[in-house]
Design a protein that fits this description.
five-stranded antiparallel beta sheet, 20% strand, 48% helix, three-stranded antiparallel beta sheet, alpha+beta
C-alpha cells in the first residue's frame, strides 16, 4: 500500500470516526484533544496524523496485517501489565485507585447517602470490594475485544502512557477497518447503464428475433423494449463467422451481471487509462458473487464475462411522424480474456472496455457512489436501483431542488427489465428494494406507495459526498 494521505476520500474519516465510537471519542477529546469546540474536526486531524506517521509515511509500502498484529500484541500486553501492576500494589497494601473508590463508597454508606445501585456495587462485604474490582480488571485485561482506553482508572496513568494508549487503540481500529475496506472507495456507474433498461430484476430469457445485418454481414438475435417516452432499446447478440443459432432466445443482463461490472471497474489500474484494459484476479470476484472459489464458480464467472462481452445495445428515438430521428449502437466490452497460469494455477481476467464506455469514464459521464453502500445490500434489485437514486440525489443537489419527488412506475420500468408483465407484482418487488435501502439508511429517507408509484424522500448529500464528488481539488485514489 503506497497511498498518500491526500488521496483518501473524506468518507473514510467519517467511517473511522464511527468505528472509534462515541465513548472513545469523548475520552480522546478529554485527555488528548482537551475538549476542543469541534471534536469531529479535531478527531479527523488526530486520525490523519496517525495515518501519516504510521500507515502512509513517505510513500512506503505498508504491510497492514503486520502493523495490525504489532499493535494488537502491544495493546494486549499493556492491558495485562496494567492489571499486574494494580494487583501487586493491592497485595503490597499500596493505596490504589480501587482503594480510593472503595473509601468513597464506604463514606457514602456511613453517611446514609447510598442508594440501591451503590449497594449492589459493593455487595455484602465492603472489604471484599478490592478483590471484586481486581477480578473485573483481570477480565478486561484478558478480553481481546476491550480497548486499552477502557481502563476504568485511566486518570491514574501518566500523560505519556495515556497518549500511547490512545495511539494503540486508534491504530488497531484503523487497521481492522482498512483490512475489510473495499478496494476502491468510490464506485462509478456509466450513465447509459443507469438511464436505460440494461439489467433485469433476475435471470431472464428474452424472446429473440433473427435478422441479417447487412452492415455487419452476419445474423443477429435481437429483442426490442419500448420505453415510456417513445424510445426503443434493442438488445442483441451478433454471431461471429462460423457460428450458428441454436435457440431463438437469449439472456438479458441481470443483477449479478451488474455486480460483476461494478467489481471489474473497482479493479481498474493504469492500463485502464492507456489501453482501456482492466486485469484482475478472478478469485475475489467468485467469493463476492458466488461465496466460494470452486471449479463451478470459475466456469460460471467465465460464462458471465463472455455473456456481458457479447451483449450489445442499440437504441433509437421516434418522432411524431413515426420516423426514426436518432439511432445509436454500442457494446460494453471489446474483448474478454480469461487466462490460467500453469505454474500457480491462478486464473485472471482481462477486460477491454468499449470506446464508448471508456470515453464516458474519462469525461466524467458517470455517477459516483460509495462502494461500501453497495456492499451492504443483499437485494439484487437494490444494487441496480441504488445508482438511479444516487443520480437523482446528485442532480437534485446540483440543481438546488428538494429531495422529495413522486416516482411513477415508468421511472422504474424505463431502467429495469422486469421479468413479470404484471405491474402490481413489480411494484411489490420495488417496494421491497426501497425498504432495504431505507432500513440500511442508504439513499432513501422515507417512502410510501402512491397509486402506481411511490412518494420518495431521498437523503440529503453528506458533507463528505460533496467534497469527494464535486471538489475538483480532491484526488480520489480510485482514479
Amino acid at each position: 500500500m503506497t497511498l498518500s494521505i491526500h488521496e483518501i476520500p473524506h468518507v473514510v474519516f467519517d467511517e473511522i470516526h464511527k468505528e472509534i465510537g462515541p465513548n472513545t471519542s469523548a475520552k480522546l477529546a478529554k485527555y488528548i484533544l482537551k475538549d476542543t469546540v469541534d471534536n469531529t474536526s479535531s478527531i479527523n486531524s488526530y486520525v490523519k496524523d496517525i495515518l501519516n506517521r504510521i500507515l502512509f509515511k513517505d510513500g512506503e509500502d505498508i504491510d497492514l496485517l503486520y502493523i495490525k498484529d504489532i499493535y494488537r500484541r502491544r495493546l494486549q500486553n499493556t492491558k495485562k501489565n496494567w492489571y499486574k501492576q494494580l494487583e501487586e500494589d493491592c497485595h503490597k497494601h499500596i493505596i490504589t485507585p480501587i482503594h480510593a473508590e472503595r473509601d468513597v463508597l464506604k463514606m457514602a454508606i456511613e453517611n446514609k447517602q447510598s442508594d440501591d445501585q451503590i449497594k449492589s456495587l459493593i455487595g455484602d462485604n465492603i472489604e471484599q470490594y478490592v478483590y471484586s474490582r481486581l477480578q473485573d480488571i483481570h477480565d478486561w485485561a484478558h478480553n481481546r475485544k476491550t480497548r486499552l482506553t477502557d481502563y476504568p482508572y485511566l486518570d491514574s496513568k501518566k500523560h505519556h502512557q495515556i497518549t500511547k494508549a490512545f495511539e494503540n487503540d486508534i491504530v488497531y481500529i484503523i487497521c481492522k477497518f482498512l483490512e475489510s475496506a473495499p478496494k476502491k472507495w468510490i464506485s462509478h456507474r456509466f450513465k447509459d447503464l443507469i438511464d436505460n433498461p440494461i439489467f433485469s430484476d433476475g435471470k431472464k430469457k428474452l424472446e429473440g428475433t433473427i435478422e441479417y445485418d447487412s452492415n455487419q454481414k452476419r445474423d443477429i438475435v435481437y429483442n426490442e423494449y419500448k420505453l415510456s417516452d417513445d424510445r426503443i432499446i434493442r438488445s442483441f447478440i451478433s454471431l461471429k463467422e462460423g457460428e450458428q443459432i441454436e435457440l431463438d432466445k437469449m439472456f438479458s443482463l441481470d443483477d449479478t451481471d451488474s455486480e460483476i461490472i461494478e467489481h471489474i471497474l473497482e479493479n481498474r489500474g493504469k492500463r485502464f487509462f492507456t489501453d482501456k484494459v482492466i486485469q484482475f484476479d478472478l478469485r475475489p470476484l467468485l467469493l463476492r458473487v458466488y461465496g466460494h472459489a470452486g471449479k463451478k464458480a470459475y466456469d460460471l464467472a467465465t460464462k458471465r464475462l463472455k455473456k456481458i462481452g457479447r451483449f450489445s445495445i442499440e437504441g433509437r428515438t421516434i418522432g411524431l411522424d413515426n420516423k426514426t430521428k436518432t439511432s445509436f449502437l454500442y457494446n460494453l466490452f471489446q474483448e474478454v480474456k480469461v487466462n490460467k497460469d500453469d505454474l500457480t494455477d491462478r486464473v485472471s481476467a482481462e477486460i477491454r472496455l468499449s470506446d464508448s464506455l471508456h470515453e464516458q469514464f474519462i469525461t466524467n459521464q458517470t455517477v459516483q457512489i460509495y462502494s461500501h453502500f453497495i456492499h451492504k445490500l443483499e437485494n439484487g434489485l437494490s444494487k441496480i436501483l441504488i445508482y438511479a437514486f444516487q443520480k437523482e440525489r446528485l442532480d437534485a443537489f446540483l440543481e438546488e431542488r428538494e429531495m422529495n419527488s413522486h416516482y411513477e412506475y415508468t421511472f422504474f420500468s424505463d431502467r429495469i427489465r422486469f421479468r413479470s408483465k404484471k405491474i402490481n407484482t413489480n411494484l411489490k418487488i420495488i417496494e421491497s428494494s426501497l425498504q432495504e435501502l431505507k432500513t440500511a439508511k442508504i439513499i432513501i429517507n422515507h417512502f410510501e406507495k402512491s397509486g402506481n408509484g411511490f412518494e420518495i424522500r431521498l437523503l440529503p448529500l453528506m458533507e463528505s459526498e460533496k467534497k469527494d464528488f464535486f471538489n475538483s481539488s480532491t484526488i480520489n485514489y480510485m482514479k
